Amino acid sequence: MTHFSALSLLKNALTGNKNWTEQWPDAQPKKEYDVIIVGAGGHGLGAAYYLAKEHGITNVAVIEKGWLGGGNTGRNTTIIRSNYLYDESAKLYDHALDLWDNLSTELNYNIMYSKRGVMMLAHNVHDVQSFQRHIHSNRLNGVDNRWLSTAEAKAFCPPLNDSPNARYPVMGAALQMRAGTARHDAVAWGYARAAAKRGVDIIQNCPVISIRRGADGSVEGVETAKGFIRAKKVAVSAAGHTSVIMQSAGVRMPLESFPLQALVSEPIKPIFPCVVMSNTVHAYISQSDKGELVIGSGTDQYVSYSQRGGLPLIEHTVAAICEVFPIFNRMRMLRKWGGIVDVTPDRSAILGKTPVKGLYVNCGWGTGGFKATPGAAHLLAWTVANDEPHKLNAPFTLERFTTGRLIDEAAAAAVAH
Amino acid sequence: MLLIHCPYCDDTLPELEFAYAGEAHIARPADPSKLTDEEWRDFLFIRSNPRGLHAERWRHINGCGRFFNALRDTVSDRFLTTYKAGQPRPDVTKLEAAE
Fold it and tell me: ipTM for the complex?
């Protein structure tokens, strides 16, 4: 594998870019692995990378039903932030943020992490109080977050409509400066390349049909479209399809899968310097480096695996964007798409062991899994290697639904987040 | 947008008139004080979340206001049937034979 550097770019430029080698081999499955990871999204590929790098476990396969990074990793709106209310969540997401910091260098792959700031708009007294509570909680946890007045918010994001006569006037905003965006495909590709370099097999176009359990109940391996593959440890990181795969191992999950949509506009010159979210009017917008406005919508109300989603949600989101940014009301939208997100009752992730020996699960990231990618991957690898959860993901195991110790970010944010 | 048949109004109407209300046929425990923590977990949080046929509750919130149940394919989003609350889950094989 070529090491990327200014020198290798120059060398290949001079030779007409004809000598680049493939970034990872398209592997065929072996009969047996030490660990199998189901799902080659950022979380699964990252977990394989950290298993190899930090735990010395290199006999690992990542099995993907479609193409690498083609699920929610390639369908999200690329936002990274960690300004969560509860201590457990703040620590979990801030752990991810710490890993994002050096990821490009570590993977030798430019993931274009841009700390452009995420600004959350407050439109009423409740928002103001709730966001200030978040800010205080974040500061106690050492998480960057601060309050902006309406004028400061306008100065930070000039396209914002700051008129006091707006239907939902901006009364201030919470700003996390460490937050921003990264190129989502590059995250999957970078992890895939770095994992493959350490000996991990990445097997694409190979749906996992079921998880096979032995006579003693422990995991024996997975049945796939390319035959049975043996492994004593299987980690499921399959986002919206987790319930279906876990069901095959006899584990019923506290999850429901919903379509979540996003859309992009025609590309325009740089106009939007940050990420803006408004929970109250449901607007969620940033501008990609290509120039498209990237807009996140909400989840449909009903369980579905259609990867499509309904038009009323798009209409609602675009109406909110036009309300907060009237400057965009004549923009044309190029395309919209949907991904299937797995949502837990408390809107916090599940990362840990399962009642089945040798079976691990990383799921329930709902509408906010991308920002957690390096953190989730790192902790999943730790959990698989040590057969127990790391202290950061210990509060996020399946047991919380029995003990009742939920991490209720749903109530904290009052909307999907 | 989904078009949903309300079995009370006997009319097929746009999704915007309806509110989804989760998985159907999850019976409230007869004697809550006897439930173990595991049984409470199953009742409150565990959902079948199938890729395929799903029995679910809907409420005609901007119409008659009543709850009813539906059988829908979660891959195609196609409704097989809707039926009144309190009725048992219809037999799918009979439904398909009738089509």
Answer: 0.94
